[in-house]
Amino acid sequence: MKQIEKGREPKRLEEHRAKGGDFDGLPKDELRRQLLNEQGYICCYCMKRIPQTMSREQIEKNYPSSKIAHVLSQDNHSNQQLNYQNLLIACNGNHGQPIKVQTCDTFQKNKDFHFNPAGRRNIEEFIKYKANGEIYSDDEFLNRELVEVLNLNTFDLKRIREGHYKFYRELIEREGKSRQGKDIQKRFYESEKQKLLSQQEGKFFEYCMVGVYLLNKRLSKLN
Known about the structure:
Blueprint: H1 11-18, H2 29-38, H3 56-60, E1 66-70, E2 87-91, H4 104-108, E3 128-129, E4 135-136, H5 140-148, H6 155-177, H7 182-196, H8 208-222
Antiparallel strand pairs: 1-2, 3-4
Helix pairs in contact: 6-8, 7-8
């Protein structure tokens, strides 16, 4: 999960709220574009690419390729439904599939997620990854919500993250051995980390924070 830097809210959202409108009545094209740009076209929760590749069945049934997520749900916090800080963009979370494989906003439904990736607390400081692709946190409340609110440890997500974990672990070991001296190694790792934290042609790499997590672990050993 990546920390999201919010910009100024879209003018149409501001005007719609001032008129007493609700979320359902909001024209969402401008909002969706801005959220995608802010997040570098990755899901606010699982970091999957948006728009994502969809199955023929999903396309034929006109399932959404992304969803505008309310971190604090509309059902429980109606006063937050047009709060720009509470609005993020998520993947379609296997919309239309059995609930056990649903993730992110689709699984969340009317539940609240209490660790806003765009909040004041940097979510990146609380999230960790295991070699088997599991996402977790030492914070017990957050750790529970990663599963019970967002379902981020499905078989498919763990398998994908496991692949990224293996790739960056091998890169760190291989390139570290080819560079002699801590300072040289640190410069390389910092450079790789910066690539993952920067948008390339307006997009972040999918699951970029798995690599950042491993690079930070190695950097901490070199300090």
